[in-house]
Amino acid sequence: MAEESTPPPPTTEMSNATLTDTPTPPTLPLARFSKRVPIASILNRPDGGASLAGQTVVIGGWVRTGREQGKGAFAFLELTDGSCAANLQVMVDASVYDLSIIIHTGTSVSLLGTLKTPPEGTRQKIELRVDKVLELGPADPSTYPLPKTRLTLEFLRDRLHLRPRTNLISAVSRIRNELAYATHVFFQEHGFLYLHTPIITTSDCEGAGEMFQVTTLINETEKVEKELIENPPPSEADTEAAKLVVQEKGEAVKKLKEDKASKEEIKAAVTLLTKAKDDLAKLEERAKLKPGLPKKDGKIDYSQDFFARQAFLTVSGQLQAESFACALGSVYTFGPTFRAENSHTSRHLAEFWMLEPEMAFADLEDDMNLAEAYVQFVSQRLLDRCIDDMELMVKFVDKTAIDRLKMVASTPFVRITYTEAVKKLQEVTDKKFENKVEWGIDLATEHERYLSEVLFKKPVIVYDYPKDIKAFYMRLNDDGKTVAAMDVLVPKVGELVGGSQREERYDVICKRIVDMGLPLETYEWYLDLRRYGTVKHCGFGLGFERLILFATGIDNIRDVIPFPRYPGRADL
User: Fold this and answer.
1) Which residues pair with 504 in a beta bridge?
2) Contact 486, 372 (CB under 8 A)
3) How far, in Å, CA of 146 to CA of 92, rounded?
4) At what angle do helices 401-410 and 544-552 cross, to 10 degrees?
5) Helix-strand-coil split of the chain, %, nearest 5
6) What is the reported pLDDT for 24?
7) What is the C-alpha to C-alpha distance for residues 292 and 20, in angstroms, rounded to an integer?
8) Where does the Aminoacyl-transfer RNA synthetases class-II family profile domain start and stop, copy by copy (predicted)?
């Protein structure tokens, strides 16, 4: 990047003669750890930055578009620095810098200039007239991968490292950031402790078995096989010869002791014996090396793996969070989770983020209240703090996005039992579902969306699901057929939240684990929470990317996470 001399810090010039006659102009804050002024601090003011005219600032950003005008006498640039949805208009004279270099999309610049009021009738309330180009990182228009034309999301998925430079993905990134920040604000303000649960686990929370395995056995096996090719293992003859050497050295030491030889002679002989034993041990160890994964009783011997047992990438931090909730009261975990589901749909990722709160001394009703309050809080937060980005979603993605947020933020959620939901769906006559509706099925997305978008036109909480379609840790209801589970269904995505009151009764949860074919010994630590001071508790899981789909109206989950992982793709 080309550099010139360091500029003076941004200043606000004011004549002493008019100090008492004119109002003090607003102060522009610098970026905290940079010598530039964020574009958001200019354009996000109520007056669009008009009151800042006359101030000298340093701006840094990337050229979205550039065009020469006045027969090459000057150029207008649309500059973004990612701090807001809007671009700052910049005017550069040809006398200040070579316009043929600075106008190209993707070019980075650091500019010293003066904020000016543009001519009347223009869209902008303020623009920057450049006095000096401090730094410039050129972008060759002949090879720059993002043309000025409107780009499809599919096209951008093949250019993950550059897609944040587009209007849409940068807006999604700010929305994602605000939702993550709002999540922490909500739970911290309600007395929840933020908990970091492990990414590597030895338990399957869901019991589905679709987990990524963590192992070093393959790497170790490859090393052994390479070593055996380069340095073949010793033969039986080599080992027998080494044993004879040990025997000979041992007899030599014995004889020296019998002959009452000097200490020096005995010590030297013992050293030779020790070396012979070490050589034999190494030979015997190498003789054990065999190609392929280590086996025991015909199965892979995981006792030789890194953790001395099978380990996986977590599908959920819930079980671990329960152990802390049963000591600290209310906790939440918020981090990446993984599922090795070979799905190519627009709703599934192999790596995704989950929010999972857990509360002690709380039941299913408390769980539903928490989920409803959280979803309403983050919806209102976007309306309050991300409205420009949401307006961009309305313009380019989903015209109903803002209205949907407003409705969810202000409307009490409907609550119905699973049995009632099934009955209502069976009575539907204006739509034929692809998946047959009957008691005992796991509601499909089409059913969930019909309930929230058509029947009730608002979020719906369905609770008391059949036990056979839910996990072992959900509390068995008195009817013996259903569990105290609940799902929050919202327009656009269907299920957003899945939660339950956890089974706190020791004998009941033991039977549930066995009935589902899971090994009791794996969950001994989890059962301890029921053996010692068991307590009524509950919690839920929320797929963070689904929350972003709900908020933005974007259709494909791969477009709301910075670096999507799915079957066949793990770029960057």
Assistant:
1) none
2) no
3) 23
4) 120
5) 40, 20, 40
6) 62
7) 86
8) 331-562
The pLDDT confidence band at residue 6, using thresholds 50, 70 and 90, is very low
Q: What is the pTM assigned to this prediction?
A: 0.86
Question: Beta-carbon neighbour count of residue 33 at 10 Å?
Answer: 5
Write down the mean pLDDT value for the chain: 92
Is the alpha carbon torsion for 227, 233, 238, 242 positive or negative?
positive
Cα-trace Rg, the chain: 33
Do residues 523 and 555 make contact, with C-beta atoms less than 8 angstroms apart?
Answer: no
First to last CA, the chain: 24
Quickly list H helices, 331-477.
364-385, 387-396, 401-410, 418-426, 445-449
Which residues pair with residue 334 across a beta bridge? Answer: 355
CA 313 to each of CA 91, 98, 310, 484: distance values in angstroms, whole numbers, following the listed order: 52, 53, 11, 28
Q: Which distant-in-sequence residues (6+ apart) come within 8 Å of 95 by Cβ?
A: none
CA–CA separation, 498 vs 493, rounded Å?
13
Which residue has 């940068």 as its token pair? Answer: 170
Beta carbons within 8 Å of 168's beta carbon, 6+ residues apart: 153, 392, 396, 397
Residue 412 half-sphere exposure toward CB, CA atoms < 13 A: 4
> Is residue 192 very low, low, confident or very high in pLDDT (cuts 50, 70, 90)?
very high
Look up tokens 């990317």; give the residue: 545
Residue-wise DSSP of 304-332: GSTTSS-EEE-S-SHHHHHHHHHHHSEEE
Q: Using alpha carbons, select from 95, 97, 94 the residue that is nearest to residue 110.
A: 97
Q: 136 by DSSP, 3-state: which?
A: strand
pLDDT of residue 208: 55
CA–CA–CA angle 17, 20, 23 (5° rounding): 110
* Tokens at 358, concatenated: 């857990």
Dihedrals phi, psi of 254, to nearest 5 degrees = -60, -45
Which of 151, 164, 109 has its CA nearest to residue 131? Answer: 109
196's CB contacts (< 8 A; 6+ apart) are 333, 335
C-alpha closest to that of 5 among 135, 96, 115, 127: 135
Cα dihedral 557→394→410→431 (10° resolution): -70
Calpha distance 244→277 (Å, rounded): 10
Strands (E) in 47-126, as ranges, are 56-69, 74-80, 88-93, 108-116
CA distance 88 to 39: 7
Strands 460-466 and 482-490: antiparallel
What three-state secondary structure class fits 338? Answer: strand
Q: Two tokens at 98?
A: 């070579």
% pLDDT > 70, the chain = 95
Distance CA 70, CA 566 (A): 50
Tokens of 526: 């989890």
pLDDT (tens digit, 9 = 90+) per residue, 274-325? Answer: 999 999 898 888 888 788 888 889 899 999 999 999 999 999 999 999 999 9
Closest by alpha carbon to 366, among 355, 377, 357? Answer: 357
Give the up-direction half-sphere exposure of residue 503: CA atoms within 13 A in the CB hemisphere. 24
- What does the alpha-carbon distance between residue 158 and residue 154 come to, in Å, rounded to a whole number? 7
